[in-house]
Structures
1.
Amino acid sequence: MAKKASANSSSPVATDDEQKLRKKQAKREAKAMLVIEEAKKDVQKAEKKLAEAQATLEARTAHLRTLEENLAELRTPHEETEVSAPNAVSDNQDGLPELEYETETYTSS
């Protein structure tokens, strides 16, 4: 019976150790869960910030395109007038205005 008593007395001690280990494990799991939740919040915050930055980038890119198109429109008529101006001049290649000569017939008396 002495063996039974010693076996029974070691059992409660073993269960106490097991409970302590389970408690420590539960604490570790709880800490890990808190860290995971915090990391998830950080990821969501970063995703939100990224989405806002992406929207800002798209808006600014669209504005840039609009400005570039406006500049192109401003340049286009100016270039067309420069190109068409030399063509508007007649065949006179020297760029001087053409003079019209009057031909008079002189009659001798």
2.
Amino acid sequence: MLKTPNLMITNNFSRRHIGPCAQDVKMMLDKIGVDSLDTLIGQTVPQSIHLKKDLDLPAGMNEYEFLNYLKTIGSRNKIFKCFIGLDSSKFELIVNCFILESLS
């Protein structure tokens, strides 16, 4: 029986979005004649922009954890009133007066 994937499961983000599997990588490297990703990067990325150390990144999160993290950050937002253009009619009147004065 054909089993359809449950698209509502949100903790499998990495399986759906993070690159090819090891077998696919090996096949691609074999196709272009390179023995490893490090060799490929060494041949294509200039040495002057190579990082000399590993990135200091936090542990990964699944979608559920990340959405909760975003909600936490978003809850700190503050809503303010915007008064830009509130009484632009006076500004237009002043500009028109200056234009008329400069023409006379």
3.
Amino acid sequence: MPDRAVQLTVRETDFDPDGFLKDPFRWTQPLAQHIAEVDGLGRLMADHWRVIGTLRRHFLEEQDVPPEQRLCRESGLGDECIVDLFGPDEREIWRVAGLPNPRGSRTDDLS
């Protein structure tokens, strides 16, 4: 990870080969902002934070997440909010929200 003025309390070894945080409890909002900037999303705004908060709540409390449209509705946004806010790769919100890789890592696919 590049040096930042904001103190990030994670190391490269905290991420899997695909860039997903291995332990969601190591996540912080400054880390989320850093990931978003590195990935080209720019500054996270209120709508981003609402969806991230809803996703993390579901994952941490229920060890599951709702379908994308329900996640958007629960966040008070339109049904396409994930694509609108985080782009066409639905895994991007998982990276920014500090959740483990939802599909395993690329190295898992090679074995």
